[in-house]
Protein: Flavodoxin domain-containing protein
Amino acid sequence: MAKILAIYGSKYGSTKEIVETLAKELENLKLITPAEFVREDKDYECVLIASGIYAEEIHPEIVNFVDKNERWLKQKKIILLGVCLAGQRGISYLDKLKKKLGSCIIWVGMAKGRLILNRLGEEDFTMMKIFANKVKMPFIDRDFIDPEELLDISSQINTIMKV
Structure:
């Protein structure tokens, strides 16, 4: 089994929780944030890049990490995972990373996240309220994290890593 470095960007904790859950099912995985990255981490065979999606954008720490490390990342097997309320319907939010990293990507997917209104910063709270009104969605806490979905994702990743 290959060694996997999982780098995640999480603003309110859903992405972190999801990647920690996946780490329990994936073999030989090291879990870090971009700020925790050290030179020795370049030795991993595979890099799982996980990002929360905010206002239809990839977490800025992940964008910056990929921009700064694009050259060596393109020499690795890359797994992309996005986390948003829309789940698989939000897959296009990862297009920027897919275009940048290209053919080294071996798996791309989305997981459903969580929205806890009292955890949001003022700007995000206002933005979500406007969005909810626009799409006529109730402006309430939402928890779409699905343990079965996460087991399926970890199973898919374990399968492709064994090939």
